[in-house]
Every structure is written in C-alpha cells, then in structure tokens.
Amino acid sequence: MKSITNHILMVRPFRFRKNEQTASTNYYQKQLQSLSEAEITRQAQDEFDRLVKVLRAHGVQVTVYQDPGVHDTPDSLFPNNWVSFHAEQRALFYPMYAPNRRLERTSKIFEALAKEGISITLEADLSQAEHNKQFLEGTGSMVLDRAHKIAYAALSERTDQVLLHDFCQRMGYQPIAFVAYQTVGEERLPIYHTNVMMSVGPTFALVGFDSVDDPKECALLEDTLVKTNKTLIRLSEKQLAQFSGNALTVQGTAGPLLVMSSAGYHALTDDQIKQLEKHLTLIHSPLPTIETCGGGSARCMMAEVF
C-alpha cells in the first residue's frame, strides 16, 4: 500500500483555548493571558485557514470538516487523535484521555468525505476502552511506518501498551514501544504523544533520541529505524519544544512534502534542512496560537486519508 497520501482530513475549530482537561499531561500547553477566548479562537481559525491554503497550493487534497460547535470541544482541530484511515477505505476510532475530547468523535466526517466520492467503512471503534481508563490516541500515540507496518509508540497515560498490541494484532503492525521524556522543571516526565518527538517519512526519520532515557529502548528504536533504511535526523529537546518533530510527510503535485509549523522549521539547523531536502520539499506555516494553547502542531491537525 501507499505509505504517504495526497489527501488529508482537517477539522476547523468552532472554539479553541487551552484545554484544562489535557493540560495535566501535556506540558507544552501554555495560557495566553492577554487574549480573550474569542480572540484566541479567531487567531487559531486564521492559522488553520492559512495552513489549509499552503497545503492546497502544493497540490494536497484537503477535506475540511467544520466543527459545528454542538459540544465544548476546544481541541477539535486535532482529529488525528480520535480517527485514523487505512487501506481499502477503512477507519478506526480511538479511546481518548480527556472527557471533552471524546465528544470530538463523529461519523459526520464520513459524510464530508462521501461528498468527495470517498466511501469509508468504520473497521473498529476502540473507544469502549475508556470505561477501563485505557487510552490510545490514534496517530498521536502511534507514529506509523505504513510501508514496513511498524507502530512506534511512546507509552504514557494516553498510550496504553495493551491497546497498542491490540491495534498491532488487528492491523498487522509490529509494535516498537518505549517511554519518551521531557524535562519539566527538575523532573523528567513522559511526553504525552509520540508524534511530538518523532516523525517517520518514507526514507528518513526525525527523532528526539535524547528523550528516550532507557538505553535499551533507545537502541531498539534506533536499530529498527536503521534496519528500515531511514536516514536519521536527530532532534534536540529544544527542537522538540518548538515542534520540529511534529511533522508529516504527504504527497504534493511535484513530489513528497514535509509539513510542519514555521516554528518547527526555523528551529532546524541548516544542516538538518539540507539533509531533509535530499528527500523531499519542506513546507511550513505559522501556528503560534495553536502551539501555545493546544500544545500540538501541524501533524496533530492532519488525519491522513487512504
């Protein structure tokens, strides 16, 4: 199957703010004290629209689903956590850590895709695991190497090992599990989502190896990437904090594209950019409000449609 796609689903926010229900495990989230919630929402919508425009300008098909505002869903612009799409037009729904994020799941996205001639079948709804306080937040929790059928997963409160293995057994993936940390004050605390600390493209991987404190886990991660012929581009903790790792490879008109935020792009060194440009074209768009309040970036905003 294809390992990258030229079609993504994005959810335009109705409201946006720092989600109080996710902040306890997402240490990248911060409060914008000087702005009202309405102003923060407006800025996030503008940043969203700009990214969509950049993607479409490079030939990426973008299906935009407008959050109707029925529920209080301040993180609705991060759909990749509750839905993933797979070969043969299949989809999975996932169990979410924050109660207000569970309200984001909706089959109406299938109606939006159907208008574009794509009929999706819901293969499985794993959300019942929420009753057991087990969570697996889609392609936030798992960075998928679709070509080699490998699921990289940084275990945390939002990424349950049992559910990871259930997904892998169901979909035919090999799990590579580890714990990734960030420094918060004097503590080393788990990074909430794998896609913040690594991005796997067809021929390269951006990885914050320094976040994996266990030497054996770090060696397994590196060895697996090397064995699948990935050029390794190592990211520092400072670069992870600027969301350089929260990037996604998609197919554009002229070839593959690496999509990230402008903050993530500008945090890369000249050498890293040159390395990446041997593989694909880099595109970026500014997402300062979304990154500050949401603690997520460009990759979190895109659900790949296969």
Written account of the structure:
The chain has 10 helices and 17 strands. The longest helix has 21 residues, at 37-57. The N and C termini lie close together (9 Å). The model has no long low-confidence stretch (mean pLDDT 96). By secondary structure, it is of the alpha/beta class. The protein has one domain (7-304): L-arginine/glycine Amidinotransferase, Chain A, CATH 3.75.10. The strands form 6 sheets. The chain has a 3-stranded mixed beta sheet with strand order 2-1-17, with helices on both faces. Strands 3-4-5 form a 3-stranded mixed beta sheet, with no helix packed on it. The protein is globular, with a radius of gyration of 18 Å.
Write the layout of secondary structure elements.
Layout: E1 7-12, H1 37-57, E2 61-66, E3 83-86, E4 90-93, H2 99-102, H3 108-114, E5 121-125, H4 138-141, E6 142-145, E7 150-154, H5 161-171, E8 174-178, E9 181-184, E10 187-190, E11 198-200, E12 204-207, H6 215-227, E13 231-234, H7 237-241, E14 248-252, E15 255-261, H8 262-267, H9 270-277, E16 281-285, H10 288-294, E17 303-304
Parallel strand pairs: 1-2, 4-5, 7-8, 12-13, 15-16
Antiparallel strand pairs: 1-17, 3-4, 6-7, 9-10, 11-12, 14-15
| Low-pLDDT regions | none
Separation, N- and C-terminal Cα atoms: 9 Å
CATH architecture: 5-stranded Propeller
Structural class: alpha/beta
So what's the CATH class? Alpha Beta
Shape: globular
Strand order of the largest sheet: 2-1-17
CATH topology: L-arginine/glycine Amidinotransferase, Chain A
Number of helices: 10
DSSP strand (E) fraction?
25-35%
Number of strands: 17
